[in-house]
Amino acid sequence: xxRLTFSFLLALGLMVAVRLWLSVRQTxxxxxxxxxxPGPFAHLIEVADHAKACxxxxxxxxxxxxxxxxxxxxxxxxxxxxxxxxxDTLFAxxxxxxxxxxxxxxxxxxxxxxxxxxxxxxxxxFKIEAHYGFNRQTPGLYVADLIRALLxxxxxxxxxxxxxxxxxxxxxxxxxxxAWGVWVAFGLILSAAYPRYLAPLFNKFxxxxxxxxxxxxxxxxxxxxxxxxxxYVMDGSKRSSHGNAYFTGVGRTKRIVLFDTLVERLEAGxxxxxxxxxxxxxxxxxxxxxxxxxxxxxxxxFAALGWLGHQTAFYQGLGVTVPSNxxxxxxxxxxxxxxxxxxxxxxxWWSRRDEYAADRYAATHADGKALASALVKLYRDxxxxxxxDPLYSAWHDSHPAALARINALARMxx
Length: 414
What we know:
By secondary structure, the chain is mainly alpha-helical. The chain has helices at 3-32, 47-78, 83-90, 98-131, 139-170, 175-198, 212-223, 260-265, 268-283, 286-308, 312-317, 325-340, 344-365, 368-381, 390-396, 402-412, and strands spanning 205-207, 231-234, 245-248, 255-259. 71% of the residues lie in helices and 4% in strands. Helix 3 packs across helix 4 (98-131). 28% of the residues are buried.
């Protein structure tokens, strides 16, 4: 056993153990709080509904633990278990050229991972989400979405993979820098194209109808200095009763999108406050900072891959007998999350800090009490946990715990 093999098995074992431990802690914390609704939520959420929401969260956690174990076994099977070697053998001989064979190995790997995850997606959608009244997606729509997603992944992903593998083979020692440039350009082009050309393949987007709500939101957007292509309502209700709002696009293609379920449930002042929160992320440069951080970390990742691709121990330590460019890319993609798991608390803390800052921005540019009211409704309607385990939340949650966030808004509102 090489040092890399040992470190990989140790890291994988620790990741699984910690995630299982945190999941069990979260399950117990949610269950312990099921008997009473926390104070700020008591006037809107019945105890029975709160208990049902707790069970919903626990069911998702239980399925997540099973999926975690399956993913760990699959990861071992693909690396040390010889899975990548088997795919290499399958596509190593004519009529496959080295480049085309590498593309087929990576495409087969992605398809295999999707198929393994499919039963969990089906169970989540048609068992858990349906049981608790959230799913509105028909089997036909689910299959249509799946086919569209696969075709889109192939049309966009296969050329990108081919170009990266070609650069690895032809561009010399600095291939990783060129590949990073391609990755950044691809991401920016995709972000610009998504609102107009990709998202409409899955949902309908209609301009927010004229009226008081639109007038209020357009005035808010203008006062915050945000240049958007428009305000749109998305038919999210055809798949789920969950509500949401988000920004999409870059440059002139930026759009503000509201789920129709959100528009139906929130009052005009609450929607204005929610939008002010999202605008806060823009005005406080959270979006730009994360984009630049993503560019920097991806550059570091490509540089690391450029070095690892020349290290025989990298392949041997992770179960690949014949080094190749596509094997290096596959191993790096599969194994990196195992080692980065330890950075979860830092990433979650950074995200929660930004959420608090966006709340403060919203409280000064809209009605802070309306934001608190909107959040309470969203927690209720989405069956979010109101009593999370502190350690689980610190490691996983990108948003502050419900009670902490509402209390912080109460302090802002005086």
